[in-house]
Design brief:
8-stranded antiparallel sheet; globular; 4 domains; single chain; Elongation Factor Tu (Ef-tu), domain 3; Rossmann fold; 6-stranded mixed sheet; 13 helices; alpha+beta
Amino acid sequence: MSHQSELISDDIQGYLAEHERKQLMRLLTCGSVDDGKSTLIGRLLHDSKMIYEDQLEAVKADSVKSGTTGEEIDLALLVDGLQAEREQGITIDVAYRYFSTSRRKFIIADTPGHEQYTRNMATGASTCDLAIILIDARYGILTQTRRHSYITSLLGIKHVLVAVNKMDLVDYSEEVFDNICADYKELAKELEIEDIRYLPLSALTGCNVVHQSEHTPWYQGLPLMETLETIEIANDANFEDMRLPVQYVNRPNLDLRGFCGTLASGVVRKGDEVVALPSGKTTRVSAIITADGEIEEAHTPMAITLTMEDEIDISRGDTITLVNNRAEVGNRFDANIVWMDETACLPGKQYYIKLGANMVTGSIAKVIHRTDINTFEKHTDAKQLQLNEIALCEITTNTPVAFDAYSKVQSTGAFILIDRLTNITVGAGMITAATAGNQNQNRVTEEERQARFGHKPALVNLTGEQATELGHALERKLFERGCNCLLLEQNATIASGPLGEIAEAGGLIVLCLESQAAVAGGAVDINSDTLNADAAIELLLESGVLV
């Protein structure tokens, strides 16, 4: 099955030590529906003899029942294990497979191509070093090709292999391959990807997957497997900016208080002067402890425990950095958001924001612009985000946090948005920068009130014989919509000032049983003799009070 070594029979400890020293590469396959992502992974494992015999026999049996390749073995079934995936012949969830060669260890993620499951693709890509973007040679670049390429760029994946698949269905045409490569190079001008390589292959027949194919004598590059083994990724890590997000405070006895975590980036040495963020307290590193004992120096991505010379308060969720190279600290930043929920995002709504080990509450203050995946145009008139849409947004947290631009340090620049009621992850974000000029902005703006409550301030005059009953019913419906509303009974007054001014200043919808005041734009009159509560809601929508 997998890569064999003579050490397995002669020196198992030596084999394990050799295996541990191999460099690990994380990669994913992505692209449009039916471009052959699962088949490619299956072919990669099969041709490199990395499948157990019982696994292969099981796939052969499943191919008879669920396969899509006729009498041939359907290698896609190696990764498409869900019943729904086999019934439809598609990938729904992200499937991970581990394998190794004599040069490297690999964790490969098979991600879905359907637009409906774009969020799964973004999840699978978030930890990868390299992306294989498959393109069906018959159809060329499709919408999902563009979307996945854009997400790959957003997530900072530095290496991309554009694999033009199903070359056997176009007679291994060099012209078809060159045309698709030219089209993708035009697309790539809009992306920030450092290393893009192109190769023709056929996952079904094995052309250029593990071995060079005689069907493409015009292709002088390496086959896929050798390309994966030789791409240099060691220099992709950031060794300049030391960041240690604290995951746990270890207090085993009176003599040790250690701050545990995985170095997100950079190098830390014994004696370095460090600062805990967001508190800003400084101290020096007295010891660096690992599972193998105390060391003098640690680098990313090592898991370590730091002890400090001074007794300062450092908690889970804090970030330790060097004093002369600090992360940003603030409560407002701009970030690219990939929206992952069926329910549209609501600017102003409070979400949990999980940034590393730090969990705070906050909101999307506003959508700066939404990106059209087809044209990469920026639409500044977007008010909210629908499922799978991507936009640059302004984020506000209720307490200051330590963060970096995602392009600088991924671990301290990435976060997720979680619905506070359902605990569902609704969005993934990549920080671009601190919001300019807004770090100390405390004033609540009219736009923020409207975004939070979903309506403009208004005075609603209720008239007619059933005004009281309508008032209570309408107040209940507005309240259930999350509106900031208040029903004033007949002859009620507010001592602190004119009613209209209070409504406007507080962003209120005030329901009155008789006309008492007016706000900018005039009051809305609703007659209880002709309208019920549902019709009143429709009227408020038409009048622009509810947004």
